[in-house]
Amino acid sequence: IVVTDVKMLSGFTPAMSSIEELENKGQVMKTEVKNGHVLFYLENVFGTTHSFTFSVEQSNLVFNIQPAPVMVYDYYEKEEYALAFYNIDSSSVSK
């Protein structure tokens, strides 16, 4: 099992309908939303490339949004991980 841990950007929350859709379509095994993170659990991904998207909603207006981490790790061996950062283009935020 692989876990993808996406920390939400300041002022944003996940759109729960898009999270549920990933589970319903079988793109992820399980999801959890807690403490400003979305955790996606995937299985049978060894040696494969796997991608998915989900929507977020702006809950608070925040200026100078800083990048947030995305960590991918083995559920059973957390010392095996990859870390990247993402941000949102300010021109794509609803005003």
From TrEMBL:
<dbReference type="InterPro" id="IPR036595">
    <property type="entry name" value="A-macroglobulin_rcpt-bd_sf"/>
</dbReference>
<feature type="domain" description="Alpha-macroglobulin receptor-binding">
    <location>
        <begin position="1"/>
        <end position="86"/>
    </location>
</feature>
<dbReference type="GO" id="GO:0005576">
    <property type="term" value="C:extracellular region"/>
</dbReference>
<dbReference type="Pfam" id="PF07677">
    <property type="entry name" value="A2M_recep"/>
</dbReference>
<protein>
    <recommendedName>
        <fullName>Alpha-macroglobulin receptor-binding domain-containing protein</fullName>
    </recommendedName>
</protein>
<dbReference type="InterPro" id="IPR050473">
    <property type="entry name" value="A2M/Complement_sys"/>
</dbReference>
<dbReference type="InterPro" id="IPR009048">
    <property type="entry name" value="A-macroglobulin_rcpt-bd"/>
</dbReference>
